[in-house]
Predict the 3D structure of the following.
Amino acid sequence: MTTFTIKDTVGNIVVKHPSLGRILEDAGIDYCCGGKKPLQQACQEKSLDPEALLAKLQQALLDANDSQQEDPAKMSLIQLADHIVYQHHGYLKNELPRLDAITDRVASVHGGHDPRLVQVREAFIPLHQELMHHMNKEEQVLFPRIREIDTADSPPDLHCGSLALPIHQMEHEHEDAGSALETIRELTDEYMPPSWACNTYRVMLDSLSQLEQDLHWHVHKENNILFPRALERENELSQKSNGSCHGAGGTVPSLKYHYTR
Ligand SMILES: [Fe+2]
Ligand SMILES: [Fe+2]
């Protein structure tokens, strides 16, 4: 893992690890026009402790390594739902507003030079809104039902309907988000900065690339692990019901309300 010292310039730190740009932004440090300043000087000008900020940057790199080592297949449904909300929804809730500001800034400043940056901005706006809405539906409706059936020892309350409908809707929305990111990837030449790109432009590309990577992991955990296992568990519990409920094809006003587009 790369290590830094307080003598490294903030510009170089972001060049080596663009994901650290968000920590410098949170600290109010300008790594774009002020990129030539060593971390120590940039911190002193903001009355910050350079060693404390350096430790935070190093910890972020360690956390990034750790987060790649978990095994979602070994988690219970409850653990996996909690993990997705904490790890991926948490990330998106911080990252989408941040990228909203950055894509707006880059399109405003450089859109005249490359109109594709305006198209990136136009693709990002609905993606942002739809992902926020999507996460809200998962957190308020679908995931609570999934947590419920994980520990249930009696047949599920199927008068509320099968999980199949909301899961199908979520999978459809995952495809929409993937398409929007594919468009952004094409518009940015696969997140490749041109030679004239400033640090903010480069950070935008790196952040969009990370957004895509994180979304791939996020969707993989939902589509390929959480959802099939939840349906399997629902089916197992339904077998125990001996037809005492409406069955998996029953209608659920609350779920239909939430998931019909
Ligand atoms: Fe999600
Ligand atoms: Fe999702």
Notes: The radius of gyration is 22 Å.
